[in-house]
Structure formats: structure tokens, C-alpha cells
Amino acid sequence: MMTARVRAPEFRGRGWLNTGGRELTLADLRGRLVVLDFWTFCCINCLHVLDELRPLEEKYGDALVVIGVHSPKFEHERDPVALAAAVERYGVHHPVLDDADMVMWQQYAAKAWPTLSVIDPEGYVVASMAGEGHAEGLSRLLDELIATHEAKGTLRRGDGPYVAATADDTLLRFPGKVIELPSGNLLVSDSARHSVAELTPDGDALVRRIGTGERGRADGPADRASFSEPQGLCLLPDGRTVVVADTVNHLLRGVDLESGEVRTLAGTGRQWRSVDDDGVSLSSPWDVAWFSDRVVVAMAGIHQLWWFDPASGDTGVYAGTTVESLRDGPIPDVWMAQPSGLSAYGEKLWIADSETSALRWIEAGELHTAAGQGLFDFGHVDGAGKEALLQHPLGVGALPDGSVLVADTYNGAVRRYDPATDEMSTVDSGLAEPSDVLVTRAGDVFVVESGAHRLVRLAPGTVKTVEGERHRTERPPSPLAPGEVTLDVVFTPAPGQKLDTTYGPSTRLVVSAAPPELLLEGEGTGTALSRRLVLNPAVPQGILQVVAQAATCDADVEHAACHLTRQDWGVPVVVDPTGPDRLPLILRGLDA
């Protein structure tokens, strides 16, 4: 709990969604518990928090109001139409404030996506939590606040301000990925309808639907099985089994094409939290591809690629360390950022690495970057790979000539990269959030135009050259003094929890920088949450990339449950002689 009572700043933004057109104020919510969820719809950690909040909204529905504060990272996310689509796509059933200019972000001193701020019934900010994995701690805090304010007579229960928006009735609803079946039909993950749809070869008519269409995780026949926002699809060499990345369920599911039967292949339904996990939990698998005689899984939730062996059911890490950034080299010791699209051809595995806006590939055990410059640089620029820019690509499709098509999602474009010439070009544009590209056996190219709820066929041979704009994520930078700086990650266990040292140190801190020259000292991994850094006075600005985690367990109970709190920060900094020599970050800010 905060020791000082701080009045919650008033709501300010461009507009509201899910309120029926009503503009909300803090006075409207007086007497209710309010949780502000600062999110941006590109961010997988933010999507995890949406899922964590759903049971809390149900449990505390008459006392709690959750308000999503959408503070965008990418330029595309500033588009109010795109935001409205994302609210429907991800099943957001609470009011959302469009914080397009990051005003609320600054007023509530947010430094990371996601951040939760708790406002009590009297209008005071009583807690702030960065990152995901706070559901249990937040539940205990809400229980305490409800007891306190019921006793004081300041709690007001009743219906909340949420008003559901209406959705059009279309054949597909925010489809994600597509593959071609041996029959020539197309199989599409119909993500917002929580099902898999088989379409005719032209993509225009429904043959059958696998799944009830309601969010769930039931195995069984096609008309009783259920998924939760499925994405990637992969046909196994048997020609009969399709592996489905059941993203929000954190599972791999198998579909028998002959019977329509659905079964769980891998995962527990629990989200992977740490290297000490049970070894079988997954985290937001977003795409799957057959490569090197096994299924490779784009594990978007933890910035890695995993492998899955269908014969044994075993899984393991293929590439990535869970650090969210861009670093090439021999796998697995590489860095990725929310890999979301895979396509294998020959000896290459192409990867759409969405949060670095990068096209990458693995060949002969090494990860390479064809185009992409880091977590905060993006745009729509053609040309040589090192100069070309994309914006949050989600899909890739390899071509027989060795080149690759990219679903450049937030640019609304399909791009083509030719490794023979190291050139990026634009094939088509003006699309509504394309999320995948399929090259059929006949050579046709289908694009999943997710924002338009359809598949479209590209005209052959069309290439456009774009010299578009370069963008960079603009967030208020933190001034820091050159030379020695102390990084302090402040962590307070949730109510009823204590640090867990059963298996060694309970905390872990990883620090890096972009550009690397920004840090003269302090890069690397350690167990202390405080770190001496030395900033290079010759580098005027950059990004400090910080990953912190803390293990806790329930205190004073016989069968204590274990918990892991983790957060990734990309902190923009300017090196300023008048700046402070300390950078505090809140891992779980129940006391600050």
C-alpha cells in the first residue's frame, strides 16, 4: 500500500470506447474500486494482462471497474479505427480510454507496458504494478480495499459503465493464419470466433467449422471442441494432422482432418513463467511450422522459438533467451521480440519478429536479420535490407525462388525480400492489418487481411517502391547523468507473499543497451536488483533494456504456492550532465 495518499489525476484522452458514447470522469466512479490497465494492443504482455483481468472482473463485478488506458507504441496504434478493431479482436469487455497522446501515461508515471494503477473508492491512487502476473496479488489487495471501505461506508456497489459494441456478421472474424490442405481447401484460424474454419480453394465459402465458436479449451468432436484466439497452423507430414497454436490457452492442439476430432498435444493451460517451470507449460504460441523434422513454435509470450516433437510429445527451447531485443548469432543464445510468423523453405526458417519490426531467418544453426533495427525503430521504407523498415509484421511466406513475402501488418502492406540482392520491396499496400501470407502449390498468393475479416488473392507480378516515413517510438525520456548511475528495481511482494529462496536467489536482473555503446559498464545478468551502471558521455541518448524477475511464495501457509513476477522495460534515456544518478523502476509497486 502507498504510505502517502495521492489523488488520482482526472481522465483525459481523445475519446472512449465501450461506453455507448459516454465520457467518464473520476466522479462517475466514486465509491467503486478502479483498476487502470495501461496497455498497447501490439504488446503480448498486455494481452496476457487482459486475460488475467477477466476472472477478476467477474469476481468483483459489482464493486470493481476496470478501465483500459490505451497508450500506443506504434504509429498504427494511434489510429482510432485500429484501436476499436483491437478492442473487439481481443474481447475487451470494459471501457477503454484512447490515450493517443500519452497524456494519462505521463500523469500516472507509467514506464512500461503493461502497468496497472489501482484507485480506491475515495479517488486515491493506492497501488501501481508494472508487468504481468499480478492477478493473485491484485485479488488480495482488492479484498483488503473492499473490507476497509465497506467498514467505512465508502464502497458503492452496482452496475458498471461498460456498454458492449455491436459487431458485423462476417464469414470470418479477425482471422489469423492460413494453410493449404492436401485437398486444395484452405484452413484458417478464425481467431475472434475461437475456431478453425475450412474454406473452399478460393477462400470464399465455408466447408466446415471446427470448434464451437465460444472461448474455451475442450477437446473432442468438431462441434464440441473449443479454442481461445487460435493463431498458427501446421500440417504434419502424415497429411492428416494439423497442429494449432491455441494462443490464449497456451496450448498446442491437434486436429484430425478426417474426423474433425481435436486433442491437446502440448501445454498445461498454464502460462510459462520461469526456467524453473515444469518444462511443459507454454506462453502464447503464435505460429507453428515444420522445420528440421519437428514443429517449431513461435513462442511470442516469452520471445523465443521452441520445438515440439509430435511422436514423443516433448518440447524444448530452440532459440532465444527470453530477453526481448534484437541480437543475432548461434542459437539458442540469441534475442528476439515477440516472434509471430514462421515459414520454412529448404534450409531456411523465416521469422516475422514483430516487436523489433524485423524479418529474420535461421540457417545452419544461426539467426540472421534481413531487415529491422530494434525495438523502437519502424516505418515503411524499401531498399537495402539494412536500411529497409517494417512496422510490426506478423506473417511470412517463403517463395520457391528463395525470396520471402512479409505480412507487414501495421503498414497494411505485403513486402518482398530477396536475399540474392538484399532488397526489400512493396508488393501491395492499403490492406487492413494483413497477418499471414500463403503461397499455394499452384503459385497463388493469399493474404489474411485480418482487419477486413477475409482472405484476398494478390495479383501476380505487382511490385511498388515505397520511400515512406521512418518512425521511432516517442516516449518521454528519462534524463540520467553521464558516468556512474545506480539502477534500482524496487520490488515488494504482494500481500500474503514473501521472497522464495528455496531453489537459490529469488531475484534476477538482466541489463543491456541500444546502442550497446551507451553502456560502458553494467551490462549482463545478476541476482541483485540494484546495479552500478556507467553511461557513456559520448552517446547522447539510447534505450536501457532491463529485465527483472522475483520469485515469491505464500507466507505462513502449509502448502505454499509459488509465484513469479517479471517485467521487461525499454527505458528511453538522454545523457544529461544535470540529470540524476539514479534510475528507479517498480517491479511491483504496492508500496510506491
From TrEMBL:
Fetch the Pfam families from UniProt: AhpC-TSA
Q: InterPro entries in the record, alphabetically?
A: 6-blade_b-propeller_TolB-like, AhpC/TSA, NHL2_NHL_rpt_dom, Thioredoxin-like_sf, Thioredoxin_domain
Q: Name one GO molecular function term.
A: oxidoreductase activity
- CDD domains noted in UniProt: NHL-2_like
Residue ranges occupied by any Thioredoxin domain in the UniProt entry: 2-147
This protein's name: Alkyl hydroperoxide reductase
Upper classification of the source organism reads: Bacteria, Bacillati, Actinomycetota, Actinomycetes, Micromonosporales
